[in-house]
Amino acid sequence: MTFLKLIRYKNLLLIILTQVLVHYGFLKALHLPVLLNHFNFTLLVLATVCIAAAGYIINDLNDVESDLINKPSKTYIPHYFSENFAFNSYLVFNIGGVGLGFLLCNRLGLSNFTTVFVLISALLYVYANFLKRVILIGNLVVSLVVASAIFILLIFDILPFLNSFQKELLTPFSVVRDYGIFSLLLNFLREIVKDIEDANGDYAVGIKSLPIVLGLERTAKIAGYISVVYIFTILGYIYLYVQTNVWLFLYLVSAVIVPLVIFCIKARYADKKKHYAYMSRILKFIMFTGILSLGVLTLTLKFK
Prior knowledge:
By secondary structure, the protein is mainly α. It is built from 13 helices and no strands.
């Protein structure tokens, strides 16, 4: 069980849920032409999960000193696993993930697309070792990698068929793309909040994150301002594309907009570690409810 915590099994389950919802709960549920059959989709999910698990391990390996300060009770290296064991596990997951990606691409006749898996793996390594120390750039890169769990389905499920079935796939392509962008933006906000939570340890090891440069409370307020931008962006999206879909409209308002408003209020007055932890939990909740909205969209379209 401790090893599962090391590889962040809850986050991995969310990745699986996200990809299953996009592939089966949206694209195939609407009987759209997609490239991946059951076996190939399983390969894609396993490759994604393995690379993500490797990313969590290499990140923990590079954060041992700061994690001992920030979250000593949740530090698995070196309390439960040696650094050597952790690095070997990283190699196994990483090679396994890229290898599965290579197998998938060869089965599909898309050998050049193996670069996608290599790039994601490389970005996670570079982030953990270098980019994490660069203000905002590191946050943006890791957010892009997290959102790639959605974008990768655009590449393998829809893109090869887009020219042949443009009429059928153009709108679904746009929907999945928009979910990927929303995932990126939400993760970017969560990375800022995580930097606030980890400020003490980051300061001790010389990482100059945004909270260390600007201060915790000021950064929390900036996170609140960003969430206001997100709220109006989503409201604009709802007005343009969702207003005629009553059930999806109600779901997005209650399960995404309202929690973001709560986050905004909490960010305005946050000044304690427990406040920042609560903000992080709100964003996790929004990530979960946000991807579930894709299922709501599918149901409303099928029974319209």
